[in-house]
Amino acid sequence: MSALRVYIEGVGLWSPQLADFAALRSQLAGNIPDPPPARPAAATLPPNERRRAPESVLLAIEVAGQAVAMSGHSASELACVFASSHGDQPITDYMCATLAQAPAELSPIRFHNSVHNAAVGYWTIVTSCHAPSTAVAAQRASFGAGLLEAVGQVLAEQRPVLLVCSDTAGGGPLLEITGCTQSFGCALVLAPESSATTMTSLQLSLTTSRVISPLAEPLAHWREANASATALPLLALLAEGRGRCQLDVAATLGLQIDMESVA
Q1: Residue 173 reports pLDDT greater than 90
Q2: What is the mean pLDDT of residues 41-56?
Q3: pLDDT class for 170, splitting at 50, 70, 90?
Q4: CATH code of the domain in which 19 resides
Q5: pLDDT for residue 1 is more than 90
Q6: 102 in a domain, yes or no?
Q7: Confidence check: pLDDT of 161 > 80
Q8: How many domains are there within the chain?
Q9: pLDDT for the residue 83
Q10: How much is the average pLDDT of 100-128?
Q11: Does residue 182 belong to any structural domain of this protein?
């Protein structure tokens, strides 16, 4: 596959340690940023929906809103790709336990929020977005697979695309399988051409070699603690403005990314 080029116009980020992309930049500069509130604000959602929505939805909506605001695009016009390795783990754990013990007591609302595209459903409804939307899952390669899908749409359709990747912390027996001990979400707005809001450009190419890009602490620990945090090598490059990293997009494929500043 020949190299693909796209442009970054917005970045969103949330974790228990980092409130946004600016906090990551501060962390990498050697500072200790103020921690965010206990739950993502998700200000894009109306108050009633915020109170009812599970953390998985709040997390995805929060980072999506940050990235879109930075890009200057209208959320209603952006095609979107939402990726998640495990979906809403607390709800999945609840459903498994309830079905095993008292199936008739299963909550319809929690079942509604358990589907893998719940977050993108909330997003498109609240932003009145009628552009195409996609939900992606690829275990720990979900961010890389989502990025490749978003880049393909950007270049094929010649339109900007919002990419969101997020996972909440696990619990119960699921935690033993997923190893996801804390929440993490991130978002990018990708575009086919440079614009006034362009931060940098990415050149991407597929490779059959799989290399784990090094990360300094505490970023390396955060990456291990959440599958969506496999995005951190790319987010760190965005914060620093240059460099190269590699992400997994499948069990046998990697995505090499070279970053270039835009004058």
Answers
A1: no
A2: 92
A3: confident
A4: 3.40.47.10
A5: no
A6: yes
A7: yes
A8: 1
A9: 97
A10: 88
A11: yes
Q: Would 163 be classed as within a structural domain?
A: yes
The reported pTM is 0.94
Residue 171 to residues 13, 18, 98, 180, 182: CA-CA distances in angstroms? Answer: 23, 22, 15, 8, 10
Residue 183 lies in a domain: yes
Neighbour count for residue 20 (Cβ, 10 Å): 19
Provide the residue range defining the domain that includes 44: 7-197
Which candidate, 126, 117, 147, 136, places its Cα nearest to that of 76? 126
Residue 144 in tokens: 């890389």
